[in-house]
Design brief:
The structure holds two protein chains of two kinds. By secondary structure, chain A is mostly helical. The longest helix of chain A is centred in the middle third of the chain and has 38 residues. The N terminus of chain A is likely disordered. Chain A is about 70% helix and about 0% strand. The relative contact order of chain A is 0.13. By secondary structure, chain B is an alpha/beta fold. Chain B has two domains: about 220 residues, Rossmann fold; about 60 residues, Alpha-Beta Plaits (2-Layer Sandwich). Chain B contains eleven helices and 13 strands. Chain B has a six-stranded mixed β-sheet, sandwiched between helices. Chain B has a four-stranded antiparallel β-sheet with strand order 11-12-10-13, covered by helices on one side. The mean pLDDT of chain B is about 90. The chains are: A mainly alpha, B alpha/beta. Chains A and B meet through helix 1, helix 4 and helix 5 of A and helix 2 and helix 3 of B.
Chain lengths: ~270, ~300
């Protein structure tokens, strides 16, 4: 029984329970309310679709390309927009660590993993929708612009190869963004996170290709960037993994990074 | 209610907080004092479950904060000014924080008005002054109408008007039954606001009492007398347990004696007295006295200025 002196005058409560839905909404608000989000999302769409529209498929040779090769050529822009989504993904967490907001965020979400799932959910949903929309748009617009001039057989979604390439390019783009998010959550610093991304996706594969004798290059296909390409861009490299194996490997890398991020977020000081 | 039990935090071999035990009661304002590096911020972060204690435990309103179903209803926290993404508006920042607990725009707008940010709530926080950033942080702490409020240096960067406002705010919260725990280095300000006081130094508890008790027990209360015959009075008062200092040709500062005794002795000897008063040490003096052994980052003097 509280004594008279400790009776608390009840105040109308305004805060409800901490819920996953609440955290998802909160993360969406954070995501939509900074400008860099919209710059990088627009960049993703413009690069993906723009390359399909403005870059002629099949190169200068003018030879009729296969349906798959044509579909691939409409998705080349996604290699560039991967970079934009990696940057955006990294900044989802590093932005909070940089400003110190992470402590405000975690102080209202003391069950810390909820924050990770919330960010993953909000970012993942937006990026997946946008990546698929832009890879489909790139193919459709690329087909409309370039097909009549090529004199090739009509290329459209009925072809299972084409469907895999178009949808696959979008899926890979989205998973790459999440890969960036996990790197940001682990490294917590924007500059270091972006350098790591650049090293993993661009510098390391190039260095290994130059440094290793050609007989030892088989494992290059296990690099995240090449695993990502396997699903839709396989013809670039004859030693590539089969499409879905490559995609599974990329998802595996991403899941492993998310697991490390969860472990790191949960145990230490914020 | 905040209960801190045997709380210890080590970074490598440096001990930041060393076996702290104290509790903070609801319904009063409790101040938190300590020299720089004493472990105040670390303690506050552990209360909010942001830092993980090496050992010991903290309970907020009777439970581990991490297991609270409605954290925002339990604890409101202000740690550092402008812990906000500079590109985000104050309103979106508060909305994002509130949405985790189902708090919507109506309450966000209410709190924005309450802290006086109505005119700038839609502007990017990056352009805010320190004081405005501080108000954003205070708004975050109050957003969920929590039962316990913890603030690290809430008056930092505020103008005198803002300092008075914070003082009234903390008192009102306490009157409503909230547990209010805050740190400040402005001791005159804290002396006016806080009723209870926790003092730490080098991560250890130095004092846990009311502000008045703290001042009384750490410093002597002096009697100050002004008399044209100060030298003669000095001779009359000479006793083993009385310490006398001259503050001027006609001014004596006397420790270890009551003003009644001084007045009576002066009257009996016919010594004219123009001024007779009791001087209590300020909280600042008491604090210096209590913590001079435990100053972590002390300046070494001004010789090399």
């Amino acid at each position: 029984m509280p004594t008279a002196a400790t009776v608390i005058r009840p105040r109308e409560p305004v805060a409800g329970n901490l819920t996953m839905t609440g955290v998802l909404r909160s993360e969406w608000t954070k995501f939509r309310s900074v400008r860099s989000t919209w710059w990088l999302l627009s960049t993703t769409v413009i690069l993906t679709v723009g390359v399909a529209v403005f870059v002629s498929p099949g190169g200068a040779s003018g030879k009729p390309a296969s349906a798959a090769a044509f579909a691939r050529s409409t998705e080349y822009g996604s290699v560039l927009s991967q970079l934009a989504l990696l940057v955006l993904g990294v900044m989802v967490f590093t932005g909070e660590y940089h400003s110190g907001m992470i402590r405000a965020s975690l102080s209202v979400v003391p069950r810390r993993l909820l924050l990770l799932w919330g960010k993953l959910g909000a970012f993942g949903a937006v990026v997946l929708a946008l990546s698929l929309a832009s890879s489909v748009a790139a193919f459709v617009l690329g087909t409309l612009v370039h097909q009549p001039h090529g004199g090739r057989a009509h290329v459209w979604f009925g072809d299972p190869q084409v469907t895999r390439i178009v949808i696959g390019a979008g899926l890979v783009l989205a998973v790459t963004g999440i890969f960036g998010l996990a790197i940001g959550a682990i490294i917590r610093n924007t500059a270091a996170g972006l350098s790591t991304i650049a090293a993993i996706f661009f510098v390391l594969p190039l260095l290994l290709r130059l440094a290793l004798p050609s007989s030892d290059q088989g494992f290059l296909r296990l690099m995240p960037s090449n695993a990502a390409g396997a699903l839709w861009n396989a013809a670039l490299s004859p030693t590539s993994l089969s499409p879905w194996t490559g995609f599974a490997l990329l998802c595996g890398y991403t899941a492993a990074l998310v697991a490390v991020a969860a472990w790191r977020l949960r145990r230490g000081d914020a | 209610m905040i209960e801190v039990e045997n709380l210890t935090k080590r970074y490598g071999d440096k001990v930041a907080v060393d076996g702290l035990t104290f509790s903070v009661a609801p319904g009063v304002v409790t101040g938190f004092l300590g020299p720089n590096g004493a472990g105040k911020s670390t303690t506050l972060r552990m209360i909010a479950a942001l830092d993980v204690p090496t050992s010991g435990r903290v309970r907020v309103n009777g439970r581990d904060y991490r297991s609270s179903p409605a954290p925002m209803a339990e604890l409101g926290l202000l740690l550092e000014a402008k812990a906000v993404h500079p590109g985000r508006s104050a309103r979106d920042h508060l909305l994002a924080i509130g949405q985790t607990a189902g708090i919507g725009k109506a309450r966000v707008n209410e709190v924005i008005e309450m802290v006086g940010l109505g005119d700038v709530a839609r502007k990017r926080v990056g352009g805010f002054s320190l004081g405005m950033g501080q108000r954003v942080g205070i708004a975050v702490a109050l957003l969920g109408r929590p039962r316990t409020v913890v603030m690290d240096e809430p008056v930092n960067g505020l103008d005198p008007e803002g300092v008075r406002w914070i003082r009234a705010l903390l008192r009102t919260l306490a009157d409503e039954g909230c547990t209010v725990f805050y740190s400040s280095h402005l001791m005159s300000e804290m002396a006016q606001t806080a009723t209870n006081l926790i003092v730490i130094g080098r991560g250890r508890l130095i004092s846990d009492s009311t502000v008045e008790q703290f001042i009384a027990k750490t410093t002597a209360t002096s009697v100050v007398v002004r008399s044209p015959e100060a030298a003669r009075l000095r001779g009359l008062l000479g006793r083993a347990d009385v310490r006398i200092a001259s503050d001027g040709p006609d001014l004596l500062r006397i420790d270890g004696i009551t003003p009644e005794e001084v007045g009576t002795i002066a009257l009996q000897a016919g010594v004219p007295v123009f001024d007779l008063r009791v001087e209590r040490a300020s909280l600042e003096e008491a604090f210096m006295q209590a913590t001079h052994d435990s100053v972590e980052y002390g300046a070494t003097g001004l010789e090399n200025l």
